[in-house]
Amino acid sequence: MREGVLVKPYERLEKAQIEKIHEASLSILSDPGIISYNREAAEIFGDSGAEVSSHNGYWRVSIPERLVEESVKKAPSVVKLSARDKEDSLILDGKEPRVRFGTGSESNIILNIDMEDFVSEKTGIKRSFPVFYRRRGTVQDLCQAAHLCEHLQNVDFFIRTVNIQDEDITEDNKDINKFYASLNNMKKHVMAGLTNVEKLDDVIRMAEIISGGRGSKEPLISFITCVTKSPLQLVEDTTQNLIEIAKRGYPVSVSTSPQGGSTAPLQEAGMLAQLNAEILAGITLAQLVRKHTPVLYGSVPLRVRMDNLDNMYGAPETNLYNMGGVQMARFYEIPCYSTAGIGDSKFPGIEASVNKLLSHLFIALSGAQYIHYAFGLLEGTNTFSPEQAVLDDVHVGIIKSLLKEQRIGEEIEEGLKEIREVMSTSHKMFTRYARKYLRGGEVIPFYPFDGDANETLRKVRERKEELLSASVDEIPEDVKKEIFQEFDVLERIK
Amino acid sequence: MIKISKETIERIKENVVKGRRNKEDEDFEGGSIGEPGVEELIEEVLKGGVKPKEIIDYINEAMEVVGKRYETGEFFIPDMMASAEAVSAGMKVLEPYLSSTGESMDKFVIATVEGDLHDIGKNIVALLLKGAGFNVIDLGANVSAEKIVETVKEEDAKLVGLSALLTTTIRRMSEVVEKLRAEGVDVKVLVGGAAVSAEYAEQIGAIYCKDAFEAVEVAKGD
């Protein structure tokens, strides 16, 4: 079991303010209500007592406060996310601020680094510099990313990092191949969005075969559905995904990504009220489809840039919105799928790491149970850099250490003993007592990538290569055989 | 003569590697408390008739293992120091037997020079030297040139190590070297510390050691 780090959460909003946001969200869901582009969702809301009016291609739905409150209460506080290795499974508890970090996004671009030699015109001295290559992601990149993340010890769960854009990947085989590429290269929990809802049963069946046979109740996989197009519009296909996943009782993150300054208010209160309303609409729908559907409160708010209205993940407001989202999720006692470790830098290294750390630290401090986007992302969510993922792993490890529970009560006697013993020696050094913390993995011996920008990237790249050359436990051959008989897995990733 | 099993000898080596002086000590993972450490095991084998010189050979073998593990990155400074402490504790048990058999360990006088109270670096060097089997006479910090020279003469030491962190105190090193030379004392002088450079060492006729490991290597090369 990956237990995560139980933090003493930083509560930016007071209880009365949280209640105010909650009331504002309920009020929004009733008036102006939401727009649904999905007929089935409109019908489900209508059948449950919501006021629904039909328009040209969409439905306006006014959801009564009572319906939202009753439905949200049905969402379980505890969500189990299993893994191929039981040691990697997660139990998320909405009542407990226990923090875990994972990957995220479905970046179109992979950024690779080569170290190349250059000769100075001035001095004639040859030096090695990193050179960056950008290209579209492939299914093999996804396999490699999963392989790498299997060995990054602070990655607690895996959400596909790369959008697989190979020529032979189609809408029909994309879901099977992206889940297979992830599951075969790692034993941690795997989460992803769906490309084609008709393939949902195939994906679930494949996961069940891997977890020990059909009908297995261990959810090795879970799903993300970004049901809302902000402001307050339920998208036809992702809403359908949510309905179908909920019917099957699979864990699902009901996410939304309102953009402060463009598709949502820039100011904090309005943003939080809308963010919360959009998520509650999705959670209500999931519970109406099937009571007690395991859901995560999918909070992915951000601010936009003022020069071109692109996403600005590194904006301070993005962090404030996300911290608010974590508190709202805790108010409902639903585990929070939150957002951190994402910034605007285009290249891996120092600047990107500083940008990311501001959110890594604050969102973890706020006590989110399931923090996605935390490894390897650059330029918002556009690019995945394996080297940056290696750097982020070290930094997330530092944050986990920083936020760990204090143990003063159990440590004080030992501390006194050490001090007394050391004072009786000639050299007066406490080093021998540091060893058990070092061996137990509680402290990092030193920062592994120090150096100038080039040296750091060279070291990080070496570490990445080392991790990729370490083997992973793939799915057993007999299980693979069963999968290949039934599903269209690409030959090159088998 | 009581026959000492190979296992007991191996346990001495194992406990040197684990840095356990005696049964009170934990190993590098926090375990083994209550099991015999280097002190108890050496006492046992001495009673069994194993010669002190032979025990020192085993200890050296164990320290080679520790050194190799440090080089490969498996061990860190705290491991080296704990092992050196274990060896130092073992040497104390061995000392009376060594003098009674006429065997002795090389003497190494070490000090932080006058005006400087910084002794962490000096302490690490002292400990690793003990771990390498030297009889270290540690004079502490803020030690005058007179005191150092006097001790070297009294103890008939062949090696002396001087440490300084402050740039204002390194000139005290040259005073020590000059005094030693003036009194015709044949001794190798090792210098180190944040304030010292290879150039300065050469200038005053001493050997520069960039860290504790180099100091041990230089001392062994004597």
Concise structural overview:
The complex is a heterodimer of chains A (494) and B (222). Chain A has 15 helices and 23 strands. Chain A is α/β, with parallel strands linked by helices and 494 residues long.
How would the global form of chain A be characterised? globular
Question: How many H/I helices of chain B?
Answer: 9
CATH C-level of the largest domain in chain A: Alpha Beta
- Please provide the ordered H/E string of secondary-structure elements of chain B: HHHHEHEHEHEHEH
- Pair of chains with the largest interface and how many residues each contributes: A-B, 14 and 19 residues
Overall morphology of chain B = globular
In order across it, which strands form the biggest sheet of chain B?
2-1-3-4-5
The count of β-strands of chain B is 5
SS-derived structural category of chain B: alpha/beta
Strand line-up in the sheet with most strands of chain A: 10-11-12-15-17-20-21
Low-confidence stretches of chain B: none
Helix content of chain A: 40-55%
Instruction: Quote the CATH topology of the largest domain in chain A.
Output: TIM Barrel
CATH superfamily heading of the largest domain in chain B? Cobalamin-binding domain
CATH structural fold name of the largest domain in chain B: Rossmann fold
What is the total number of structural domains of chain B?
2
Distance between the termini of chain A: 28 Å
